[in-house]
Design a protein that fits this description.
Elements: E1 2-10, H1 13-40, H2 45-59, H3 68-86, E2 102-107, E3 114-115, E4 119-122, E5 126-131, E6 139-147, E7 153-160, E8 172-177, E9 183-185, E10 190-191, H4 195-211, H5 219-253, E11 256-260, H6 264-267, H7 271-280, H8 282-296, E12 299-303, E13 330-332, E14 339-341, H9 342-358
Parallel strand pairs: 8-11, 11-12
Antiparallel strand pairs: 1-5, 1-7, 2-6, 3-4, 4-5, 6-7, 8-9, 9-10, 13-14
Helix pairs in contact: 1-3, 4-5, 5-8
Length: 360
């Protein structure tokens, strides 16, 4: 099983220069061969790598100053992007820019990557000061070094490790993801998204309005831009922390988890709920449930996205078409007279449908 550890690193001035060189070389190689792809069509990654080693490194001696694995991985990443484009799995690859997040990947060989108490050893960089908040378990495969727009540096260590399967549980739960409550389950539990996310996004909106009044490129413009980037980073950390804790809790407590196979793209067409969905990231939450279920021996069942879970009465099966309006939070079934909470009723319908699919 592959598992990734993320650590914040604090490179010194010399290491920052070396990182900048590596980012630049990887960007140069990526853009060089992307230009070839646009002009001449697809060339195999092995041919591109040989050309880089035999010709480009002789013409541009500065390419030899950086980690060779970083350049090779840049070529391989472009090759993968081109193949996906030719298979209609993604859009056309774009040229890399100097602004924004920058990254490169290096491979593990001969103990060139190590995680120590307060340092991480990386190729061409040596020991880099780091906040090592947990010990890694498993065999190191590679490391990805990233520099973010707010000048923070992080390293992602990919390892292969064995993950113990959890003891079997007798519990099964249906989950409805909504707007007023992020998650409502068939046991009656509801989980709201962190309020600090909303507060921080309000602050970001205010700062962006101030930014629009500043002269682009001025010192005040960059200071305000850094504040906004830090707030975005904080929001990302809050969101990931909330989603990881909630998904792990659900996986630990239940043997079978039933969710809706939502089409997030369609949901975003509704302007009333698009911002809420974007803030909390439903697709990321479902992805977490999916891979954690595989890790720990749980079963995740996805109910068809067109199943009318919110419209069906869980008691008698009557379908209320009026519930397409998201503003209706409670409703009384005209057939059997039962009063329903919209989300709790939907969670129970999802559970019933999941049980039906489980035993088919």
């Amino acid at each position: 099983m592959e598992y990734t550890y993320s650590f914040r690193i604090y490179p010194n001035d010399n290491q920052k220069v070396q990182l900048a060189k590596t980012f630049g070389c990887c960007r140069f190689i990526y853009n060089y061969f992307l230009d070839d792809f646009n002009k001449e069509g697809y060339i195999s990654k092995f041919t591109k790598n040989n050309k880089c080693n035999r010709e480009l490194k002789s013409e541009h001696l500065w390419l030899k100053e950086v980690d060779k694995f970083a350049i090779t991985n840049s070529i391989y990443n472009l090759d993968n992007a081109c193949k996906r484009y030719m298979s209609n799995l993604s859009g056309k690859p774009k040229f890399k820019k100097k602004s924004g997040m920058q990254s490169y990947q290096t491979n593990y060989t001969n103990n060139n990557i190590e995680v120590l108490d307060n340092f991480i050893k990386l190729p061409k960089l040596g020991l880099v000061s780091a906040k090592v908040h947990r010990k890694i378990k498993g065999t190191i495969v590679n490391a990805t070094i990233k520099k973010y727009a707010d000048n923070k540096y992080k390293v992602m260590i990919l390892v292969r490790r064995e993950i113990s399967v959890l003891d079997k549980s007798s519990y099964i739960v249906g989950i409805d993801m909504g707007v007023s409550d992020f998650v409502v389950d068939s046991c009656g539990n509801s989980y709201q998204g962190p309020k600090s996310l909303i507060n921080n996004y309000d602050k970001i909106g205010e700062l962006q309005r101030q930014l629009s009044l500043k002269k682009r490129g001025s010192n005040n413009y960059h200071k305000l831009q850094n504040k906004i980037n830090k707030l975005y980073d904080k929001c990302n950390n809050i969101r990931n922390d909330f989603l990881h804790k909630l998904s792990t809790s659900i996986i630990n407590e239940n043997q079978v988890i039933v969710v809706e196979d939502l089409c997030v793209r369609e949901l975003f067409q509704n302007a009333r709920i698009a911002k809420v969905l974007g803030d909390i990231s439903i697709s990321k939450f479902i992805g977490m449930l999916e891979y954690k279920a595989k890790w720990y021996g749980r079963k995740l069942i996805k109910v068809n996205r067109y199943f009318p879970s919110s419209q069906l009465c869980n008691c008698c099966g009557y379908q209320n078409i009026e519930l397409k309006d998201y503003s209706i939070r409670e409703w009384q079934c005209p057939n059997c007279g039962n009063l329903h909470n919209r989300d709790f009723n939907a969670a129970n319908n999802i559970l019933d449908k999941g049980l039906e699919l489980l035993f088919v």
